[in-house]
Design a protein that fits this description.
Distance between the termini: 7 Å
Structural class: alpha/beta
Strand order of the largest sheet: 3-2-1-4-5-6
Shape: globular
Radius of gyration: 21 Å
Helix content: 40-55%
Largest sheet: 6 strands, mixed
Mean pLDDT: 93
Strand content: 15-25%
Order of helices and strands: EHHEEHHEHEHHEHEHHHHEHEEEEH
Low-confidence stretches: none
Length: 342
């Protein structure tokens, strides 16, 4: 495996795709010290594409994106991502385009095409996995390649691989978690300062924690998407977004938080998954419970038969944090790919 050249494409070069390029640059010396030859040979974004069989200069690509808004000289015709996936020789595709909750596209087609072409895939994109989890995993297996998606849930919080690998011998009874940092920040500020929801939301928007259109977060859509992925990973039940009962945080009041506080509780947007259970809703949480986490962190508690209760936490968003999860999956695939070739 030492000295094995591993060629990567990055499809989508927004915050996450650029984060991947940045962490690859940051960890370049680590790769060299461990005899790992990982290079990006293609990048495609919504505006352009860049290809180099010798390896793209990532610093130049990042600078070009920053100054001109695209990484290549040629404007895309709309098919360049698929042309890269199918036509450029590489072993692994990183799919980092924006999530489309409604259809999973174009990421779904990107991933199925890459897997069908015999390429490993690492993705941060929730859309395809909440629509076609079983089809994606079956396609990966049929083509003897890996599909890894640690970055789809909880950013840098290591939960997908924990379930798949470290807890592989366990029966998972239930998973509960705080899966959206924006909602958690808003509820934390409401509880701490007695703010109403709209004021706390405005503060979160001013700080860049909440989007201009916050509905994806505050209505529970993001948390529900992550919960579906966790459920399918843990139980293989091919759940979809439509299977989740969802209540957002827009109706939580300062008075409700004050009453909860007087009785030793707080209110958090909790996602809960079981074999036949998928819910996202504001719930009372004891202030002594791990789920009473503050700020923008994500946290999940996994209840099992052998390992009992396991709790993990970490930053749930951020381009570098998400890229760190992608990089861990890339390294995993690199090692497995090398073992397969020995």
């Amino acid at each position: 495996m030492i000295g094995l050249t591993f060629r990567i494409s990055i499809i989508g070069f927004g915050a996450v795709g650029q984060g991947v390029a940045k962490v690859l640059l940051r960890k370049r010396e680590m790769f060299q010290n461990n005899g790992m030859d990982i290079k990006v040979v293609a990048i495609a974004d919504s505006m352009s594409s860049l290809i180099s069989s010798e390896g793209i200069d990532l610093e130049k690509a990042l600078q070009a994106k920053k100054t001109s808004g695209r990484i290549g000289n040629e404007i895309n015709t709309g098919d360049s991502a698929l042309e890269v996936i199918e036509g450029v020789d590489h072993e692994l595709m990183v799919e980092a385009t924006p999530t489309n909750i409604k259809t999973g596209e174009p990421a779904l087609t990107h991933i199925l095409t890459a897997l069908g072409s015999g390429r490993h895939v690492v993705t941060s994109n929730k859309g395809p996995l909440i629509h076609k989890h079983a089809a994606l995993m079956n396609t990966a297996r049929d083509n003897d390649v890996l599909l890894r998606y640690e970055a789809t849930v909880g950013g840098a919080m290591p939960i997908i691989n924990l379930i798949q690998e470290n807890l592989a011998s366990n029966t998972i009874h239930r998973i509960e978690g705080i899966l959206n940092g924006t909602c958690n920040y808003i509820l934390t500020r409401m509880a701490d300062e007695g703010l109403d929801y709209h004021y706390a939301l405005l503060e979160a928007q001013e700080l860049g924690i909440a989007e201009k259109d916050p509905s994806y977060d505050v209505m529970g859509i993001d948390a529900a998407s992550k919960l579906v992925i966790l459920a399918n990973t843990a139980y293989g039940n091919n759940a979809t977004f439509d299977d989740v009962q969802i209540t957002g945080i827009t109706e939580v009041t300062p008075e409700a938080l004050e009453l909860a506080d007087k009785n030793g509780y707080t209110i958090r947007l909790v996602g809960e998954a079981g074999k036949d259970l998928l819910t996202v809703a504001p719930k009372l949480v004891s202030k002594k419970h791990p789920l009473a986490i503050r700020g923008t962190l994500n946290i999940a508690t996994i209840h099992t038969d052998l390992s009992k209760t396991i709790t993990v936490s970490g930053p749930g968003a951020g381009s570098i944090e998400t890229a760190s999860a992608i990089l861990s999956d890339i390294i995993h695939v690199y090692r497995r790919h090398g073992e397969h070739r020995v």
